[in-house]
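Exercise 7. Given the components listed, write out the predicted structure of the assembled complex. Treat all entries as one system.
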Amino acid sequence: MIYNIYIFNKDGTCIYNEDWNKKKQSQNQSEDQKLLFGMLYSLKAFITSSSPKKIDDKTGFHCYKTSTYKLHYYETLSCIKFIIMSDPNVPDLRDDLKKIYSQIFVEYVIKNPIYKPGTTVKCDTFINQLNLYLKQMPSFSS
Amino acid sequence: MTINSIYILNKAGTLIYQNDFGNTEKLSHNSYIRLGSTFHSLHAIASNLSPVSGSSSGIEVIETEAFKLQCFQTHTGIKFYVIADPNHQQLEELLHGVYELYTDYVLKNPFYEIEMQIRCDLFDYKLLRLLGVRE
Amino acid sequence: MSDPLSNPTINTTNVGGQTTTQNIIGGIGSGKSNSVGTPYTTPLQTSAHTAANSLSATNSPIPTHHMINSNSSNNLSGMATPGGPGLQQQQQQQQQSTISSNNLGLLGQQSQQQQQTILSPITTQPKSISASCFEFFYIEMIDCIMKSSSDKQHAHKKLDKLGFKVGHRLVERLSLDTALFPELLDSVKFICKVFWAMVFKKTIDGLKTNHKGVFVLTDSKFQWLQHLSFDSSASNKDCSEYVQFTAGLIKGAMSNFGFKCIVTFDIQQVSTCVFTIKIES
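Answer.
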């Protein structure tokens, strides 16, 4: 079961966020986004320091799991972060995140002449394609 | 399957035990304390970020390309976490084993002050033996 | 996108022989020669090629067919081919070059370099240029031009003129080997098939005419609008600036065939474009 997706850009602005199957109502969306971003920032720093081997900042961290959810993470070289929260049994979604980046985000957001980088993504085609892609995944509503 | 390090944090999040195995790079003692506290906070924030209602535990597993971190939190608030090879499968069992050793050789040690640094030789010895068997 | 200038139907260097092809755009600036025979490129082609080749053809951000003719001799001197890659570039230039007949005329600064050229077997390998790179460039170009003047009409006219120049020159190159068109309809068909295929890698989907000088071309999946989408809440859904350039392209192409016309366009639904050509007689 996939709960939500976040896309952050280099500055920490959440440029896209969508929820499905979510059972908790959040009081303040922007607070949640900031908390998530800050937490991931610190987590990455923690991982870099405690790693026994040299680890790359962007590609190092894959996912973490708690008792109720699993957070999948993919960061591009341009510091755009793709985050999906799912239930803990879902297998690794990094490949899916990569596909979302290369086939959906780049095609329908970056190549969209109307989109201004740094602003929230509201392009119809991107939203539709993203939903299409996620809903056809077997782990979406299992 | 190598185990790289084991950390034990007390209820407040302070590091009370840390040990490295294999050829892990040694950091300064202060760095270890800092890492321990950082993990304590991250662990707590992760439970706040949960997208489902109902209480979530903190971080249980962190998977990265170079290591896997497994954390076990007891009902008393003590956190045991281990940094190991990414493909290691039995880390949870290992952590339960460490918890057992903790209860046996630390808590039952009359000279040990609760929530303070663990300086029990027997605990170290038993831990090494446990890991020697597992590795 | 494959480079239109490496169209297999265009003759490339003919060792020692003479092929009479048009000397396309006057020969200012240096020509290129090589050690055997005297094939050389006209300055326009050279500048186009060197620009593309010096950036490595497989990832060139600027496809040659969209480049505006710049001052050829300056460009040539600017793009001296260095050592190893230069050799490959020379070969590529030979492959793509049109050959003018044997007038030695204009050996410029580049002649030194040409002496080093080694003749290689001529093969017309199709080369590709990253479509993504071009799309990004195109977006920025339109943006730049729209910002350059506050009056939208003026900016549209600029885009039209730009497209005109490019279309005019491109069609010159593309119609190299085709026979003369007996009638107007054939020129329009050329645009629908060959020209559109070279620029957009597909042909026009529908052509209608009233046989009185009005033609309607329909492209149901207009390439440069494929990735464009508006916010659902946007009030102003006008993306005509992104199609204006193409209208200019058609206008330029037709004008080079000798038909002055007016080209208007209409964007229907998602990425369907309808171009209307009205011939002025």
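Discussion: The mean pLDDT of chain A is 89. The radius of gyration of chain A is 15 Å.
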